[in-house]
């Protein structure tokens, strides 16, 4: 019987079979950031352990560092300076590559890893960050771990991993205009609940996924964790190879040819068996927006806020009730009638160049509605520079957006900047949890074009009305 | 690492689904590069009246005298979803929680529990509700007993419920083992795998 893409990568890295379903896997790449990497490096050192393969470990400053212009080690996050400086000194003494503040390669970990060619098809990559699954978009097995597991990977070059089951999600057909990867993943989670992918390594497949550019595939895989999956991945194809060619850490010359020959074998065999298959008809996907406090609480932008009475069971009804109370919404209200206070374009989900270009197309010649605070945070310093080179910064600024330095910024609240209490934010990020973007801040997840359209409208808007 | 063999303690119900790690330990409560000093920030957004404040919100379950000294949490599905921050587990452990019983856990959180001597127990929702009901009348007088060797949770009335856990993980908890030490015993095997692997996939190590 054939093998799935996941099985091929898993087997290739299997050092030993341990008890039950657990294997010892070889880890090709470890990425760290100053929020959780700092403690991993610090406690590794405190235990008298060494980083086994420093040249396979990378680190960035993204979570705590300020994104306001003129930034330094000082940040608005209380105690933030210590995270930055501990990370810097621990990285230096461990001999690992750090994309520090001011480095042209700095940026959000899941944005810069592909950008630098650090993640590659068929490799294993881990990071003490739950959205590491994003990087599966290049055909890698990439997943998020805790700090102790990061110490394990750093010290031993391996991880003990419980083998997940396999799920293939087929996005069939073509995406309608105004609909993109963010809508696909929100639609999937809304239809199958946040628990839908629990215990699975997901292969995203189907015509619509093949059509997606690499940056959009990164968006799709980014939220596999919101679907409770172990990770998500896409079979690498010409698009992936073209994307990687010439990147700083990508193979060159003879090594490139060798790599390419292997990468071409990285697809699920036709007769491979998946434990589960989900099919989604892309024609049925609309621009999708969340209305609650879990990514599964999302609907087509044309829908109304649902009623708890319509929930599948008592627990779900309770959670809708709680969510609506938190969000300050009543059942029956049309989503497009909900006014917003702020709009945020950024995060590892949607802050790459193609996201900014798409949002700029909506914003060009338009203005953000009065009273709406609008912020754009490019995902990496390179994305920022590339956007500026083509004048996108002007489009954002002229429309009334703030234009920031790269980092996680207000994707999450760490005691520094926030949108404020009960402020309603439409956001291109991935988590609408209670207080995620600030105490009592109300987050609506959406695609960057929906965020741009909503910023202009001053309320949640259907981007299709903005497309000529 | 602290061992987990058997534990008997007061169980507090927090029967919501999707309790994420931001809720367990808000990011603003992670003030230092440290695994310590996090217990105070546990559930801070629900436990205190003000963000960053320390005035208890009386209605929050862990603030109620009936649940004083609670060491077991009963919760809804997908507990510990969201951010990978191990601080959520460090905060629970420092607060005094030894086990969480829920119908499902965030995968990274589950792994983090094992590494810190906190037992994640997976039982169906109906059983979790039954356990909550069994302790509700007098939580202090009706503790739950968890036996990891037997893999059972025993309700105050005597009903026992079996749960499953990977044998390797059960062993780590029972013995209080450090997985890094165990893996380092396989050093030779790792080194020999690495040698052949590097020959097989050289571009990952020498980009050319
Ligand atoms: S952008 Fe947001 S979700 Fe992504 S890594 Fe940063 S904090 Fe996490």
CATH uppermost class of chain B = Alpha Beta
Largest interchain contact: A-B, 81 and 61 residues
Average pLDDT rating of chain A = 97
Ligands bound, unique: iron/sulfur cluster
What gross morphology of chain A would you assign? globular
The H-level CATH homologous superfamily of chain B, spelled out, is: Aconitase, domain 4
Count of extended strands of chain B: 8
- Nearest-angstrom radius of gyration of chain A? 21 Å
Task: Tell me how many strands of chain A there are.
Answer: 19
- Helical stretch tally of chain A: 15
How many distinct helices of chain B?
Answer: 8
- Output mean pLDDT of chain B: 95
List the helices and strands and how they pair.
The complex is a heterodimer of chains A (468) and B (208).
Chain A: H1 5-12, E1 14-17, E2 22-26, E3 29-33, H2 37-46, E4 57-60, H3 80-94, E5 97-99, H4 109-115, E6 124-127, E7 141-144, H5 147-156, E8 158-162, E9 165-172, H6 181-192, E10 200-205, H7 207-211, H8 214-222, E11 231-233, H9 238-244, H10 253-263, E12 276-281, E13 288-290, E14 298-300, H11 314-327, E15 342-345, H12 353-363, E16 373-376, H13 381-389, H14 392-399, E17 401-403, E18 424-427, E19 442-445, H15 448-457
Parallel strand pairs in A: 3-4, 3-6, 4-5, 6-7, 9-10, 9-12, 10-11, 15-16, 15-18, 16-17, 18-19
Antiparallel strand pairs in A: 1-2, 2-8, 13-14
Helix pairs in contact in A: 2-3, 2-5, 6-8, 12-14, 12-15
Chain B: E1 6-9, E2 11-14, H1 21-24, H2 44-47, E3 72-75, H3 87-95, E4 99-102, H4 107-114, E5 119-122, H5 125-136, E6 144-147, E7 152-154, E8 160-162, H6 167-175, H7 179-184, H8 187-200
Parallel strand pairs in B: 2-3, 3-4, 4-5
Antiparallel strand pairs in B: 1-6, 6-7, 7-8
The structure holds iron/sulfur cluster.
Iron/sulfur cluster binds next to loops of chain A.
């Amino acid at each position: 019987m054939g093998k799935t893409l996941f099985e091929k990568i898993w087997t290739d890295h299997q050092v030993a079979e341990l008890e039950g379903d657990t294997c010892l896997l070889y880890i090709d790449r470890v990425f760290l950031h100053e929020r959780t990497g700092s403690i991993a490096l610090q406690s590794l050192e405190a235990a008298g352990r060494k980083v086994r393969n420093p040249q396979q470990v990378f680190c960035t400053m993204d979570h705590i560092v300020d994104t306001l212009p003129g930034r330094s080690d000082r940040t608005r996050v209380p105690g933030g300076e210590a995270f930055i400086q501990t990370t810097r000194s621990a990285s230096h003494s461990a001999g690992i590559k750090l994309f520090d503040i001011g480095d042209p390669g700095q940026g959000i970990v899941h944005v810069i890893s592909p950008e630098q060619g650090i993640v590659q098809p068929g490799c294993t990559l881990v990071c003490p960050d739950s959205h590491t699954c994003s990087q599966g978009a290049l055909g890698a097995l990439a997943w998020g771990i805790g700090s102790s597991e990061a110490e394990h990977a750093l010290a031993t070059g391996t991880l003990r991993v419980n083998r997940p089951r396999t799920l293939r999600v087929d996005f069939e057909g073509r995406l309608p205009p105004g609909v993109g990867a963010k809508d696909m993943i929100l639609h999937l989670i809304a239809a199958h609940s946040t628990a839908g992918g629990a215990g699975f390594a997901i292969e995203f497949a189907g015509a619509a996924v093949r059509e997606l550019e690499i940056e959009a595939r990164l968006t799709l895989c980014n939220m596999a964790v919101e679907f409770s999956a172990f990770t998500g991945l896409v079979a690498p194809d010409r698009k992936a190879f073209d994307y990687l060619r010439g990147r700083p850490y990508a193979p060159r010359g003879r090594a490139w040819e060798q790599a390419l020959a292997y990468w071409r074998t990285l697809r699920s065999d036709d007769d491979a068996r998946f434990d589960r298959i989900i099919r989604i008809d892309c024609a049925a996907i609309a621009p999708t927006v969340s209305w609650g406090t879990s990514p599964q609480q999302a609907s087509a932008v044309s829908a109304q806020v649902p009623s708890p009475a319509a929930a599948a069971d008592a627990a779900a009804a309770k959670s809708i009730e709680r969510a609506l109370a938190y969000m300050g919404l009543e059942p029956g209200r049309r989503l497009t009638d909900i006014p917003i206070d702020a709009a945020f374009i950024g995060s590892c989900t949607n802050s790459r160049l193609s996201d900014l270009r798409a949002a700029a197309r909506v914003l060009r010649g338009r203005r953000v509605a009065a009273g709406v605070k609008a912020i754009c945070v490019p995902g990496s310093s390179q994305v920022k520079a590339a956007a500026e080179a083509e004048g996108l910064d002007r489009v954002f600024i002229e429309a009334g957006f703030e234009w920031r330095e790269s980092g996680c910024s207000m994707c999450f609240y760490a005691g520094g900047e926030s949108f404020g209490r009960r402020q309603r934010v439409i956001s291109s990020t991935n988590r609408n949890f209670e207080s995620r973007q600030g105490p009592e801040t109300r987050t609506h997840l959406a695609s960057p074009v929906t965020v741009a359209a909503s910023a202009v409208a001053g309320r949640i808007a259907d981007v299709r009305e903005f497309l000529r | 690492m602290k061992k987990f063999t058997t534990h008997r303690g007061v169980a507090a119900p927090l029967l919501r689904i999707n309790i994420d790690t931001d809720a367990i330990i808000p990011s603003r409560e992670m003030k230092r590069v440290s695994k310590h000093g996090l217990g105070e920030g546990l559930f801070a957004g629900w436990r205190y009246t003000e963000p960053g404040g320390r005035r208890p919100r009386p209605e929050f379950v862990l603030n109620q005298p009936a649940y004083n000294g609670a060491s077991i949490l009963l919760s809804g599905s997908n507990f510990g979803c969201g951010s990978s921050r191990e601080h959520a587990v460090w905060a629970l452990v420092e607060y005094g929680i030894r086990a969480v019983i829920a119908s499902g856990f965030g995968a990274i959180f589950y792994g983090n529990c094992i590494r810190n001597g906190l037992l994640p127990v997976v039982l169906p929702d109906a059983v979790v509700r039954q356990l909550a009901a069994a302790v509700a009348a007098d939580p202090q007088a009706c503790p739950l007993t968890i036996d990891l060797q037997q893999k059972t949770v025993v309700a105050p009335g005597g009903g026992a419920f079996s749960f499953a856990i990977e044998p390797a993980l059960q062993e780590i908890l029972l013995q209080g083992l450090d997985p890094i030490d165990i893996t380092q015993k396989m050093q030779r095997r790792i080194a020999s795998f690495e040698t052949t692997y590097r020959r097989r996939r050289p571009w990952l190590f020498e980009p050319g």
